[in-house]
Design a protein that fits this description.
Elements lengths: L6 H21 L3 H24 L6 H24 L5 H25 L6 H4 L7 E3 L7 H13 L5 H23 L1 H4 E3 L4
Antiparallel strand pairs: 1-2
Enzyme class: transferase
GO cellular component, one term: mitochondrial inner membrane
Keywords: Lipid biosynthesis, Lipid metabolism, Membrane, Mitochondrion, Mitochondrion inner membrane, Phospholipid biosynthesis, Phospholipid metabolism, Transferase, Transmembrane, Transmembrane helix
C-alpha cells in the first residue's frame, strides 16, 4: 500500500490532461501553440522521471505504470490528431494504436492475476495496492511525432525525410510489439508481497 499523491504521479496526470488540449490544437491547425504545448508535456515527462529517480519517497509502483500510460495516451492522441491533419498516414497510426491497445489489455490482465484475494473492483482500481511494475521497452515513436508536428511550422511537410521516418516508425512498431510479446516477463515485473 503506497501513497499515490507523489510529484511524479501528479506530473504524469498533468501530461494526460495536456493530451486532449494538444489534440484540439493540432486538429484546429494551430501548430505553433501545439508545438509549445508538446514541449511543455516533454518537460513534465523529464521532470517526473528525474524526481522519481533522485528522491526515494517519490518513487512508486503506481508511477511506473502512470508514466508510460501518460506517454501512451499523449502519443496516441498526437498520432490520431496528426493523422486528422494529414501529417501522418492512417495505416501507420492504426498499427501503433492497435499495438498500444494490446499492451494496455495485457497490463489489465496482469493486474487482475497479481492482485491478492479478495479481488474486488474497488481493490482492482485502487492505485494504492501496487501489484506489478511496468518496465516498457525503450523503442519510441517520439521522434516521428515531434518531426510531424514541427513539419508545418518549419515548412517541410512533403519532405522525403519525413516519409522515411514513417517507414522507420512502422518497422520499430512491429519490432516493439514483438519485444513486448517475447520479453513480457521482463516488461512487467510482479512485486513480491511478503
Amino acid at each position: 500500500y503506497e501513497n499515490p499523491w507523489t510529484i511524479p504521479n501528479i506530473l504524469s496526470m498533468a501530461r494526460m490532461g495536456l493530451a486532449p488540449v494538444l489534440g484540439y490544437l493540432i486538429v484546429e491547425e494551430n501548430f505553433n501553440v501545439a508545438l509549445g504545448v508538446f514541449v511543455l508535456a516533454g518537460i513534465t515527462d523529464l521532470l517526473d522521471g528525474f524526481i522519481a529517480r533522485n528522491w526515494a519517497n517519490q518513487k512508486s509502483a503506481l508511477g511506473s505504470a502512470l508514466d508510460p500510460l501518460a506517454d501512451k495516451i499523449l502519443i496516441s492522441v498526437l498520432y490520431v490528431s496528426l493523422t486528422c491533419a494529414n501529417l501522418i498516414p492512417v495505416s501507420l497510426t492504426s498499427m501503433i494504436i492497435l499495438r498500444d491497445v494490446a499492451l494496455i489489455a495485457a497490463v489489465f490482465y496482469v493486474r487482475y492475476k497479481t492482485l491478492s484475494p479478495p479481488r474486488t473492483l474497488s481493490r482492482y482500481f485502487n492505485p494504492c495496492y501496487a501489484t506489478a511494475q511496468l518496465k516498457p521497452t525503450f523503442i519510441s515513436k517520439l521522434i516521428l511525432v515531434a518531426a510531424s508536428l514541427a513539419a508545418p511550422v518549419f515548412d517541410y511537410v512533403d519532405s522525403i525525410y519525413l516519409q522515411t521516418l514513417w517507414c522507420i516508425t512502422a518497422f520499430t512498431t512491429v519490432t516493439s510489439a514483438y519485444s513486448y510479446y517475447h520479453y513480457g516477463r521482463k516488461t512487467v515485473q510482479v512485486i513480491n508481497n511478503k
